[in-house]
From TrEMBL:
It is a multi-pass membrane protein. The keyword Transmembrane helix applies. It comes from Nocardia yunnanensis. InterPro entries: Virul_fac_BrkB. This is YihY/virulence factor BrkB family protein. The chain crosses the membrane at residues 60-79, 160-183, 195-217, 229-249, 261-287. GO terms for cellular component: plasma membrane. Coiled coil: none annotated.
Amino acid sequence: MHGRRRGTVEMNPVERVQRAVRWVDTWQQRHRPAAFVFAVFKKFGDDQAGNLVSLLTYNAFLATFPLLLVLVTITGIVLRNHAGLQRQVVNSAFSEFPIVGGQLHEQLGVTAFQGTGLALTVGIVGAVWGARGFANAVQNTLNTLWAIPKVDRPGFPGNLLRSIGLLAVLAFTVAVPICAAALTAAGSRVGLSGLPAQLLVLVVSSLLDGALFLGVFRLATAAQVSTRALIPGAFVAGVAWQLLLNLAGVLLSHTVRHAEAIAGLFGIVLGLLSWFALQATITVYAIEADVVRALKLWPRSLTQPPLTRADKSYLTAVTGAEARRPEQRIDVEFTPPDRPAPEK
Protein backbone atom coordinates (compact mmCIF):
# COMPACT_ATOMS: atom_id res chain seq x y z
CA MET A 1 0.00 0.00 0.00
CA HIS A 2 3.11 2.20 -0.37
CA GLY A 3 3.18 3.14 3.32
CA ARG A 4 -0.50 4.17 3.61
CA ARG A 5 -2.80 2.66 6.15
CA ARG A 6 -5.42 0.39 4.73
CA GLY A 7 -8.88 2.02 4.59
CA THR A 8 -7.67 5.63 4.77
CA VAL A 9 -8.20 8.20 2.03
CA GLU A 10 -5.75 11.02 1.55
CA MET A 11 -7.39 14.45 1.08
CA ASN A 12 -6.04 17.04 -1.27
CA PRO A 13 -5.45 20.65 -0.04
CA VAL A 14 -8.82 21.89 -1.35
CA GLU A 15 -10.70 19.18 0.51
CA ARG A 16 -8.79 19.99 3.68
CA VAL A 17 -9.74 23.64 3.43
CA GLN A 18 -13.39 22.75 2.79
CA ARG A 19 -13.40 20.43 5.76
CA ALA A 20 -11.88 23.12 7.99
CA VAL A 21 -14.46 25.65 6.82
CA ARG A 22 -17.27 23.18 7.52
CA TRP A 23 -15.88 22.61 11.01
CA VAL A 24 -15.75 26.37 11.71
CA ASP A 25 -19.27 26.76 10.34
CA THR A 26 -20.61 23.99 12.57
CA TRP A 27 -18.83 25.45 15.58
CA GLN A 28 -20.13 28.99 15.14
CA GLN A 29 -23.71 27.79 14.58
CA ARG A 30 -23.62 25.88 17.88
CA HIS A 31 -22.37 28.85 19.94
CA ARG A 32 -24.89 31.69 20.24
CA PRO A 33 -22.45 34.62 20.75
CA ALA A 34 -20.30 33.59 17.81
CA ALA A 35 -23.34 32.83 15.66
CA PHE A 36 -24.85 36.24 16.42
CA VAL A 37 -21.67 38.15 15.61
CA PHE A 38 -21.16 36.19 12.39
CA ALA A 39 -24.80 36.80 11.39
CA VAL A 40 -24.35 40.57 11.86
CA PHE A 41 -21.23 40.64 9.68
CA LYS A 42 -22.82 38.39 7.08
CA LYS A 43 -25.93 40.54 6.88
CA PHE A 44 -23.77 43.65 6.48
CA GLY A 45 -22.15 42.02 3.46
CA ASP A 46 -25.37 40.58 2.05
CA ASP A 47 -27.06 43.99 2.28
CA GLN A 48 -24.10 45.63 0.52
CA ALA A 49 -24.19 48.01 3.46
CA GLY A 50 -20.84 49.46 2.46
CA ASN A 51 -22.66 51.29 -0.34
CA LEU A 52 -25.14 52.67 2.19
CA VAL A 53 -22.24 53.86 4.35
CA SER A 54 -20.76 55.65 1.33
CA LEU A 55 -24.05 57.42 0.62
CA LEU A 56 -24.39 58.49 4.26
CA THR A 57 -20.82 59.77 4.29
CA TYR A 58 -21.22 61.72 1.05
CA ASN A 59 -24.52 63.32 2.01
CA ALA A 60 -23.36 64.12 5.55
CA PHE A 61 -20.35 65.92 4.08
CA LEU A 62 -22.54 67.93 1.70
CA ALA A 63 -24.84 68.97 4.53
CA THR A 64 -22.14 69.92 7.04
CA PHE A 65 -20.91 73.28 5.75
CA PRO A 66 -24.30 74.92 5.06
CA LEU A 67 -25.83 73.60 8.29
CA LEU A 68 -22.94 74.98 10.35
CA LEU A 69 -23.18 78.29 8.52
CA VAL A 70 -26.89 78.52 9.32
CA LEU A 71 -26.27 77.59 12.97
CA VAL A 72 -23.56 80.19 13.46
CA THR A 73 -25.55 82.89 11.67
CA ILE A 74 -28.73 82.24 13.65
CA THR A 75 -26.87 82.20 16.96
CA GLY A 76 -25.19 85.45 15.93
CA ILE A 77 -28.62 87.02 15.44
CA VAL A 78 -30.51 85.50 18.37
CA LEU A 79 -27.66 85.67 20.90
CA ARG A 80 -26.22 88.97 19.75
CA ASN A 81 -26.27 90.35 23.30
CA HIS A 82 -25.01 87.12 24.91
CA ALA A 83 -21.51 86.66 23.52
CA GLY A 84 -20.53 83.99 26.06
CA LEU A 85 -23.51 81.75 25.34
CA GLN A 86 -23.12 82.32 21.61
CA ARG A 87 -19.48 81.24 21.75
CA GLN A 88 -20.38 78.17 23.81
CA VAL A 89 -23.03 77.03 21.31
CA VAL A 90 -20.72 77.51 18.32
CA ASN A 91 -17.78 75.77 20.00
CA SER A 92 -20.06 72.87 20.97
CA ALA A 93 -21.12 72.43 17.35
CA PHE A 94 -17.54 72.35 16.06
CA SER A 95 -16.45 70.01 18.87
CA GLU A 96 -18.51 67.30 17.16
CA PHE A 97 -15.79 67.20 14.48
CA PRO A 98 -12.59 66.11 16.27
CA ILE A 99 -9.18 67.23 14.99
CA VAL A 100 -10.60 69.28 12.08
CA GLY A 101 -13.15 71.30 14.06
CA GLY A 102 -10.80 74.24 14.53
CA GLN A 103 -9.77 74.24 10.88
CA LEU A 104 -13.40 73.98 9.83
CA HIS A 105 -14.28 76.99 11.95
CA GLU A 106 -11.44 78.97 10.39
CA GLN A 107 -12.12 77.94 6.78
CA LEU A 108 -15.83 78.76 7.02
CA GLY A 109 -14.94 82.27 8.07
CA VAL A 110 -18.08 82.33 10.19
CA THR A 111 -17.12 85.41 12.16
CA ALA A 112 -17.32 87.44 8.98
CA PHE A 113 -20.85 86.25 8.21
CA GLN A 114 -22.47 86.41 11.60
CA GLY A 115 -25.67 88.35 11.60
CA THR A 116 -25.75 89.02 7.84
CA GLY A 117 -28.81 88.29 5.77
CA LEU A 118 -26.68 87.04 2.87
CA ALA A 119 -25.06 84.33 4.98
CA LEU A 120 -28.42 83.27 6.37
CA THR A 121 -30.04 83.10 2.93
CA VAL A 122 -27.18 81.22 1.29
CA GLY A 123 -26.86 78.93 4.27
CA ILE A 124 -30.54 78.05 4.46
CA VAL A 125 -30.77 77.27 0.74
CA GLY A 126 -27.63 75.14 0.85
CA ALA A 127 -28.66 73.50 4.12
CA VAL A 128 -32.09 72.52 2.82
CA TRP A 129 -30.59 71.07 -0.36
CA GLY A 130 -27.74 69.19 1.28
CA ALA A 131 -29.51 68.14 4.45
CA ARG A 132 -32.53 66.83 2.53
CA GLY A 133 -30.24 64.41 0.73
CA PHE A 134 -28.72 63.29 4.01
CA ALA A 135 -32.15 62.78 5.62
CA ASN A 136 -33.30 60.77 2.61
CA ALA A 137 -30.13 58.65 2.80
CA VAL A 138 -30.83 57.93 6.48
CA GLN A 139 -34.39 56.85 5.68
CA ASN A 140 -33.23 54.67 2.80
CA THR A 141 -30.56 53.05 4.99
CA LEU A 142 -32.89 52.17 7.86
CA ASN A 143 -35.66 50.85 5.63
CA THR A 144 -33.23 48.84 3.51
CA LEU A 145 -31.56 47.20 6.51
CA TRP A 146 -34.96 46.31 7.99
CA ALA A 147 -36.07 44.96 4.56
CA ILE A 148 -39.18 47.15 4.47
CA PRO A 149 -40.99 46.57 1.15
CA LYS A 150 -40.67 49.60 -1.10
CA VAL A 151 -44.44 49.80 -1.38
CA ASP A 152 -44.69 50.32 2.40
CA ARG A 153 -42.05 53.03 2.66
CA PRO A 154 -43.27 56.62 3.16
CA GLY A 155 -43.77 58.57 -0.04
CA PHE A 156 -44.27 62.26 -0.65
CA PRO A 157 -45.08 64.26 1.44
CA GLY A 158 -44.51 61.78 4.30
CA ASN A 159 -40.81 61.36 3.57
CA LEU A 160 -40.37 65.15 3.41
CA LEU A 161 -41.99 65.62 6.81
CA ARG A 162 -39.83 62.86 8.24
CA SER A 163 -36.74 64.55 6.79
CA ILE A 164 -37.66 67.81 8.50
CA GLY A 165 -38.19 65.95 11.76
CA LEU A 166 -34.81 64.22 11.38
CA LEU A 167 -33.03 67.52 10.92
CA ALA A 168 -34.81 68.96 13.95
CA VAL A 169 -33.67 66.03 16.10
CA LEU A 170 -30.11 66.24 14.79
CA ALA A 171 -30.01 69.92 15.71
CA PHE A 172 -30.18 68.91 19.37
CA THR A 173 -26.80 67.17 19.10
CA VAL A 174 -25.28 70.59 19.75
CA ALA A 175 -26.81 70.50 23.24
CA VAL A 176 -24.92 67.35 24.28
CA PRO A 177 -21.45 68.97 24.61
CA ILE A 178 -23.06 71.91 26.41
CA CYS A 179 -24.70 69.55 28.91
CA ALA A 180 -21.42 67.67 29.33
CA ALA A 181 -19.55 70.91 30.06
CA ALA A 182 -22.23 72.00 32.54
CA LEU A 183 -22.07 68.60 34.24
CA THR A 184 -18.28 68.81 34.51
CA ALA A 185 -18.51 72.27 36.06
CA ALA A 186 -21.17 71.12 38.51
CA GLY A 187 -19.09 68.07 39.47
CA SER A 188 -16.03 70.21 40.17
CA ARG A 189 -18.06 72.42 42.49
CA VAL A 190 -19.06 69.41 44.61
CA GLY A 191 -15.58 67.93 44.58
CA LEU A 192 -16.09 65.33 41.83
CA SER A 193 -13.12 65.21 39.49
CA GLY A 194 -10.73 62.87 37.74
CA LEU A 195 -11.81 59.49 36.42
CA PRO A 196 -15.20 59.39 38.27
CA ALA A 197 -16.18 62.73 36.76
CA GLN A 198 -15.10 61.60 33.30
CA LEU A 199 -17.11 58.39 33.60
CA LEU A 200 -20.17 60.32 34.75
CA VAL A 201 -19.92 62.69 31.80
CA LEU A 202 -19.44 59.73 29.43
CA VAL A 203 -22.51 57.93 30.77
CA VAL A 204 -24.77 60.99 30.68
CA SER A 205 -23.55 62.04 27.22
CA SER A 206 -24.05 58.49 25.91
CA LEU A 207 -27.62 58.43 27.24
CA LEU A 208 -28.38 61.77 25.61
CA ASP A 209 -26.86 60.67 22.30
CA GLY A 210 -28.73 57.36 22.55
CA ALA A 211 -32.02 59.22 22.96
CA LEU A 212 -31.21 61.34 19.91
CA PHE A 213 -30.30 58.27 17.86
CA LEU A 214 -33.58 56.65 18.94
CA GLY A 215 -35.47 59.69 17.70
CA VAL A 216 -33.62 59.53 14.37
CA PHE A 217 -34.20 55.79 14.01
CA ARG A 218 -37.89 56.14 14.82
CA LEU A 219 -38.47 58.94 12.32
CA ALA A 220 -36.42 57.27 9.59
CA THR A 221 -37.92 53.76 9.84
CA ALA A 222 -41.34 52.73 8.57
CA ALA A 223 -44.04 52.07 11.15
CA GLN A 224 -43.83 48.28 10.62
CA VAL A 225 -40.78 48.26 12.91
CA SER A 226 -41.64 48.76 16.57
CA THR A 227 -39.90 51.43 18.61
CA ARG A 228 -38.91 48.79 21.13
CA ALA A 229 -36.87 46.98 18.49
CA LEU A 230 -34.90 50.17 17.77
CA ILE A 231 -33.83 50.92 21.35
CA PRO A 232 -30.74 48.67 21.73
CA GLY A 233 -29.10 49.79 18.49
CA ALA A 234 -29.80 53.45 19.24
CA PHE A 235 -28.03 53.35 22.59
CA VAL A 236 -25.17 51.25 21.21
CA ALA A 237 -24.72 53.97 18.58
CA GLY A 238 -24.87 56.63 21.30
CA VAL A 239 -22.14 54.94 23.33
CA ALA A 240 -20.06 54.42 20.18
CA TRP A 241 -20.39 58.10 19.28
CA GLN A 242 -19.05 59.19 22.67
CA LEU A 243 -16.23 56.65 22.59
CA LEU A 244 -15.23 57.86 19.13
CA LEU A 245 -15.24 61.47 20.31
CA ASN A 246 -12.90 60.54 23.15
CA LEU A 247 -10.67 58.32 21.03
CA ALA A 248 -10.78 60.43 17.86
CA GLY A 249 -7.22 61.63 18.27
CA VAL A 250 -5.93 58.07 18.20
CA LEU A 251 -8.28 56.76 15.53
CA LEU A 252 -7.95 59.59 13.02
CA SER A 253 -4.42 60.84 13.59
CA HIS A 254 -3.02 58.30 11.13
CA THR A 255 -5.38 59.55 8.43
CA VAL A 256 -5.04 63.28 8.94
CA ARG A 257 -1.71 63.64 10.72
CA HIS A 258 -0.27 65.42 7.69
CA ALA A 259 -3.32 67.66 7.24
CA GLU A 260 -1.44 70.72 8.47
CA ALA A 261 1.18 70.23 5.77
CA ILE A 262 -1.46 69.92 3.06
CA ALA A 263 -3.76 72.63 1.78
CA GLY A 264 -6.14 73.54 4.59
CA LEU A 265 -9.33 72.78 2.74
CA PHE A 266 -8.05 69.42 1.52
CA GLY A 267 -7.12 68.49 5.08
CA ILE A 268 -10.65 69.34 6.23
CA VAL A 269 -12.19 67.26 3.45
CA LEU A 270 -10.01 64.27 4.30
CA GLY A 271 -10.70 64.57 8.02
CA LEU A 272 -14.45 65.02 7.66
CA LEU A 273 -14.84 62.13 5.24
CA SER A 274 -12.84 59.85 7.54
CA TRP A 275 -14.89 60.90 10.55
CA PHE A 276 -18.27 60.51 8.83
CA ALA A 277 -17.31 57.17 7.29
CA LEU A 278 -16.18 55.79 10.64
CA GLN A 279 -19.30 56.89 12.49
CA ALA A 280 -21.61 55.76 9.67
CA THR A 281 -20.01 52.31 9.60
CA ILE A 282 -20.41 51.77 13.33
CA THR A 283 -23.98 53.07 13.28
CA VAL A 284 -24.94 50.75 10.40
CA TYR A 285 -23.43 47.79 12.25
CA ALA A 286 -25.50 48.76 15.33
CA ILE A 287 -28.64 48.77 13.18
CA GLU A 288 -27.72 45.43 11.64
CA ALA A 289 -27.34 43.96 15.13
CA ASP A 290 -30.82 45.28 15.97
CA VAL A 291 -32.31 43.61 12.90
CA VAL A 292 -30.56 40.29 13.52
CA ARG A 293 -31.69 40.27 17.16
CA ALA A 294 -35.28 41.39 16.53
CA LEU A 295 -35.91 39.06 13.57
CA LYS A 296 -33.83 36.19 15.00
CA LEU A 297 -31.66 36.01 11.90
CA TRP A 298 -29.05 33.69 13.38
CA PRO A 299 -27.33 31.32 13.08
CA ARG A 300 -26.40 31.90 9.44
CA SER A 301 -24.48 29.33 7.45
CA LEU A 302 -20.95 30.01 6.26
CA THR A 303 -21.20 27.46 3.45
CA GLN A 304 -24.32 26.29 1.64
CA PRO A 305 -26.09 24.00 1.23
CA PRO A 306 -27.87 23.51 3.49
CA LEU A 307 -29.51 26.84 4.28
CA THR A 308 -30.41 27.49 7.89
CA ARG A 309 -33.81 28.78 8.98
CA ALA A 310 -32.23 32.23 9.42
CA ASP A 311 -30.79 32.09 5.89
CA LYS A 312 -34.23 31.38 4.46
CA SER A 313 -35.85 34.10 6.57
CA TYR A 314 -33.33 36.66 5.40
CA LEU A 315 -33.57 35.70 1.72
CA THR A 316 -37.37 35.76 1.88
CA ALA A 317 -37.43 39.20 3.51
CA VAL A 318 -34.89 40.81 1.21
CA THR A 319 -36.69 39.44 -1.86
CA GLY A 320 -40.06 40.65 -0.60
CA ALA A 321 -38.60 44.12 -0.01
CA GLU A 322 -38.53 44.63 -3.79
CA ALA A 323 -42.35 44.83 -3.96
CA ARG A 324 -43.27 48.25 -5.37
CA ARG A 325 -47.04 47.99 -5.82
CA PRO A 326 -49.89 46.78 -3.58
CA GLU A 327 -51.01 44.49 -6.41
CA GLN A 328 -47.59 42.87 -6.60
CA ARG A 329 -47.11 39.51 -4.89
CA ILE A 330 -43.71 37.90 -4.39
CA ASP A 331 -43.46 34.25 -3.35
CA VAL A 332 -40.17 32.62 -2.39
CA GLU A 333 -39.61 28.85 -2.48
CA PHE A 334 -36.58 26.77 -1.52
CA THR A 335 -35.83 23.40 -3.05
CA PRO A 336 -34.28 20.63 -0.90
CA PRO A 337 -30.46 20.61 -1.20
CA ASP A 338 -30.49 17.17 -2.81
CA ARG A 339 -33.05 18.14 -5.44
CA PRO A 340 -32.08 20.23 -8.49
CA ALA A 341 -33.86 23.55 -8.98
CA PRO A 342 -36.72 23.43 -11.51
CA GLU A 343 -35.87 24.56 -15.00
CA LYS A 344 -37.30 27.87 -16.17
